Amino acid sequence: MNPETAVEAIKNQPDWGSIAEKFDLWLPHIAPVGAALLDALDTQPGDIVLDVASGTGEPALTLARRMGNTIKIIGTDAAAAMVNVAQKKAINEKLSQIQFQHMATEKLNFPDAAFDKILCRFGVMLFEDSLQGLKQMQRVLKPGGRFAIAVWSTPETMPTLRWAYQVFAGRIPADKYPPLPKATSLGLPGVLDNLLTQAGFRDCMIRPITFHYHFSSFDDYWNAVEQSDILKMQYDILPEDQRSVIRNEIAALAHAFIGKDGLVVPHEFLLATGTK
Q1: pLDDT score recorded for residue 13
Q2: Which of 15, 18, 102, 237 could serve as a FRET partner for 55 with CA atoms 20 to 30 Å apart?
Q3: CB atoms closer than 10 angstroms to residue 80
Q4: What are residue 14's phi and psi, to 5 degrees?
Q5: pLDDT in the model for residue 172
Q6: pTM for the model
Q7: Cβ-count burial of 69 within 10 angstroms (0-12 exposed, 13-18 middle, 19+ buried)?
């Protein structure tokens, strides 16, 4: 991705603040990613853990429930509304060992070597400066500490976002297309590995993992898209009478993934682990 494309891609991300209350509609579908991260992180009693770009609280909340008061967790996110949703969950569940803070990863407000473990699910590729964010994560990790991050793989392995990108292309300004280039910017071979090395991490391992979105039907999937406002920015630009056209074109693209179990769509992410 050239610098100009990268800058434009930042602009057309969803408004994470405005969709914070609705984002949890997607949590069951990406839960396998969080599970893989937590398994790879191998948190131990006594650990202090940082969950970067925690969104509405996952997978940090799952880790807090699993480990109880044997660990401490801080979750951060650059969208204040996401942090508010996550903190409400922690309070409602009386999870005193976890707290959430509004903070961009490129400017982490923590001392050097403050955390034993760091994780991040689908955040690094969306940072305004991925390398700077990784450098900050490396800075606040203790020597010998472990990280586990997940980023989306290549555009070809992310069908649902590719469908939207394809259908909106040519209908709205290019800087408002669904954020396929940004979301998959670290998926090509060597890109993430190079950034981790530049950031100062050691013993890095990266492996692709496939998981599936499962919906009972295309209608079920589309209801999740609309109810979560995940394409609100793009929809708001279109004339009202174009919405059904968009839906029908995406339905045609999704048809190949419909079978006896409903709509089942494979997606691939890269799981990266390493140490400081």
Answers
A1: 64
A2: 237
A3: 14
A4: -60, 155
A5: 93
A6: 0.92
A7: exposed
Asked if residue 125 lies in contact with residue 185, where contact means CB atoms within 8 angstroms, the answer is yes
Cβ–Cβ < 8 Å for 192, 186: yes
Domain boundaries along the sequence of the chain: 3-156+178-212+267-275
Number of H helices, E strands in the chain: 11, 8
Comparing C-alpha atoms, which of 100, 109, 54, 56 is closest to residue 74?
100
pLDDT averaged over every residue in the chain: 92
For residue 4, pLDDT beyond 90: no
- CATH class of the region 3-156+178-212+267-275: alpha beta
Higher per-residue pLDDT: 14 or 71: 71
The phi and psi torsions of 46 (rounded to 5 degrees) equal 95, -15
Is cis: bond before 59, omega within 30 of 0? yes
Q: Measured between alpha carbons, how far is 201 from 194 in angstroms, rounded to an integer?
A: 10
**Helix boundaries (H) for the chain:** 3-11, 27-41, 60-67, 80-92, 130-140, 159-168, 180-183, 191-199, 218-228, 232-237, 243-254
Q: Tokens 């029908």 appear where?
A: 248
Distance CA 152, CA 188 (A): 10
Q: What does residue 219 show for φ and ψ, rounded to 5 degrees?
A: -60, -40
User: What CA–CA distance (Å, rounded) separates 140 from 263?
Assistant: 42
pLDDT for residue 9 is more than 80 = no
User: Six-digit token pair at 72?
Assistant: 């401490």
Cα 189 to Cα 268: distance, rounded to the nearest angstrom: 13
